[in-house]
Design brief:
The protein is of the alpha/beta class and about 150 residues long. The chain has a domain of about 60 residues: Signal recognition particle alu RNA binding heterodimer, srp9/1 (2-Layer Sandwich). The chain has 3 helices and 8 strands. The longest helix has 21 residues.
Length: about 150
């Protein structure tokens, strides 16, 4: 009987862990609201090297880009004008070498810099991660870093 109760308790414990684990949220997508979605999509595809993926609306107001293994950027057209965006609110991407990515930005004529935008030298976080910041066509801020997480 003790074996049966032990086994039943073990199954209950494992099934409860599975249910709890299944409920942990994970990042799926983020959305930007833009003036010209084609201009924005072109920027992300050329500068950030994202890949366009199918979107379910087919209403000429949405473009979806794959930005990670299980992450998407949804670009939605409809903004009447560009509005200022604070650098504190930004998308962040990691690359193996910030310096090499900065060369790519130079080739694409994309202005970038440290947090203050006063220097093109990468910002160094206290944990040693290098960062640069720049804006997309609608002024949304993007960080590129060399975090190895």
């Amino acid at each position: 009987m003790k074996k049966y109760l032990y086994f039943a308790s073990l199954i209950l414990f494992v099934s409860k862990l599975t249910i709890v684990h299944a409920q942990i949220p994970h990042m799926n997508h983020t959305t930007i609201f833009v003036v010209d979605m084609n201009k924005s999509a072109d920027f992300y595809e050329k500068v950030m090297m994202t890949t366009r993926i199918p979107e379910p609306f087919h209403d000429n107001k949405h473009i979806w880009e794959k930005i990670g293994e299980h992450n998407e950027l949804h670009i939605v057209e409809g903004a009447k004008q560009d509005v200022p965006h604070d650098i504190n609110i930004h998308l962040a991407f990691s690359v193996p070498s910030v310096e090499d990515f900065a060369k790519h930005l130079d080739e694409m004529n994309v202005k970038y810099g440290d947090w203050s935008q006063k220097s093109k030298t990468p910002q160094l976080r206290p944990d040693g991660v290098k960062q640069i910041y720049f804006q997309d066509p609608d002024g949304y801020w993007i960080e590129v870093n060399d975090d190895k997480f």
